[in-house]
């Protein structure tokens, strides 16, 4: 897992979270989900983006994109809006238009299981990942019984650490577009959650190359 070796300290998760993951691993050891809790030994990762329209019945749009050191597989991405029958129809339409999703799914065990299967036990990365996972993991816990157990790296924190190494007085950037500009990456006009996930993957790979230069 060479992609991860330089950034072990950026894995998110408090001691309480790690203990919960271990408890879940044991609880689901004899289920069809058991493999999701096993360590991943490959080169691939999954860039995750999540946007939420809050309310009594939140609408959650998700994009998950598999990538490797040499390629971001956008053509094979998992993209959908998760909403139940109580969701306001006008809010749902606006949400789909804003985050460019064509598919609406119920946040039930079948569909959440399909997303978990797509992600597998690969590590997750994303911009401000902890915030993205907050609502998604709630859906997982309700629909399946556990939150995503994957190792996680926040690209925002990684960007800030790399930037401070080169420019100690730098301030934290709150937007991924600003981070892309910092590393002289083209700020392409990406669309929706798929664009957010793709931008996170590209930024992560750029930061990996930057880290390799300073080893």
Furnish the topology, listing elements before pairings.
Elements: H1 2-5, H2 15-27, E1 45-53, E2 59-68, E3 71-72, E4 78-82, H3 89-99, E5 104-105, H4 109-119, E6 124-126, H5 129-143, E7 152-154, H6 155-166, H7 176-182, H8 192-213
Parallel strand pairs: 1-6, 4-5, 6-7
Antiparallel strand pairs: 1-2, 2-3, 2-4
Helix pairs in contact: 6-8
Can you walk me through this structure?
The protein has 8 helices and 7 strands. The chain has helices spanning 2-5, 15-27, 89-99, 109-119, 129-143, 155-166, 176-182, 192-213; strands at residues 45-53, 59-68, 71-72, 78-82, 104-105, 124-126, 152-154. Helix 6 runs parallel beside helix 8. The longest helix has 22 residues, at 192-213. Mean pLDDT is 85; it is low at 4-12.
The number of helical runs is: 8
- Taking all Cα atoms into account, the compactness measure Rg is 17 Å
- What is the CA-CA span between the terminal residues? 17 Å
Order of helices and strands: HHEEEEHEHEHEHHH
| Total DSSP E strands | 7
The coarse silhouette is globular
Q: pLDDT average, as an integer? A: 85
- Helix percent reads 40-55%
- Which class of secondary structure composition applies to the elements? alpha/beta
* Low-pLDDT residue spans: 4-12
**Largest sheet composition:** 7 strands, mixed
Strand content: 15-25%
